[in-house]
Write a structure and sequence with these properties.
- This protein has 236 residues and is α/β, with parallel strands linked by helices.
- Helix content is 42%, strand content 12%.
- It has a single domain, classed as Rossmann fold (3-Layer(aba) Sandwich).
- The protein is built from ten helices and six strands; from the N terminus they run H-H-E-H-H-E-H-E-H-E-H-E-E-H-H-H.
- Strand 3, helix 6 and strand 4 form a beta-alpha-beta unit.
- Helix 9 packs antiparallel against helix 10.
- It starts with a helix and ends with a helix.
Length: 236
């Protein structure tokens, strides 16, 4: 618009050129990691959910404080070994997505590009077009997971197939009863076949096999409970 106004030699055109930027809808994105979103910056994030501002939030969830040395965060799942939980985290992962959904007016999606690039693009497109606050949580493989990163896409797929990382979208613009859309299938892969490809889990077997099995059982129960909640939201 500003480029066109340059060729109009009228006082009104010059005045309009000054404010032209404010006449078009902007696509605003806030990007950060799970340490910020789930933990140290959650208060600000929660406040943003409550305002309904037209802002998109992309959380790159590595399930650990990656940039500061691999410390446990509130996004770290039960059984994972990280700094401050070397013997395996005992508590469950915070469910940021479901907390955001409780507001009712926040677009929420959980994605994993290695598992479904189609669902990833659909969620980002919907979030960007939604005129309100949107939250997208993206599974992000990380060197702190302890495996060759060339297998990152495969691990993302296994995370989804095991039920650890369900893919879904919650769109407030849909009619009631159809707002929560489950994009992934029921778990088909044993959880151990996903997690024990990563050193953050497998190192516990050598350190304390009994504890590793106990934490695996808790993690499996976590997956079951998560799917009970998701099925209820999806009306299944």
């Amino acid at each position: 618009m500003q480029e066109r106004l340059k060729f109009i030699i009228k006082p009104e055109a010059k005045l309009l050129a000054v404010i032209a930027d404010n006449l078009t809808r902007k696509s605003v994105w806030i990007m950060g990691g799970d340490g910020w979103a789930y933990d140290i910056g959650y208060g600000g994030l929660d406040h943003l959910f409550s305002t309904g501002e037209d802002v998109n939030i992309l959380v790159m969830d590595t399930e650990v404080y990656s940039n500061t040395g691999g410390q446990t965060s509130k996004a770290t799942p039960v059984g994972a070994s990280a700094k401050f939980s070397i013997a395996g985290k005992q508590s469950s992962k915070k469910d940021l997505a479901l907390q955001a959904i409780t507001y009712g007016n926040v677009y929420v999606a959980q994605i994993a590009m290695g598992a479904s690039d189609t669902q990833t693009v659909r969620a980002i497109t919907e979030a960007n077009s939604y005129q309100g606050t949107s939250l997208i949580i993206a599974y992000s493989h990380c060197i702190e997971h302890g495996y060759d990163m060339k297998y990152g896409a495969q691990q993302q797929k296994k995370a989804v197939e095991s039920g650890h990382w369900p893919l879904f979208r919650y769109n407030p613009m849909n009619p009631p009863g159809k707002r929560f859309i489950l994009d992934s299938k029921e778990p088909t892969l044993p959880l151990r076949d996903y997690i024990y490809n990563e050193a953050r889990y497998s190192r516990l077997i050598g350190q304390n096999g009994k504890r590793a099995e106990e934490l695996l059982a808790i993690a499996e129960e976590d997956v079951k409970n998560r799917w009970i909640r998701i099925r209820a939201l999806a009306g299944m």
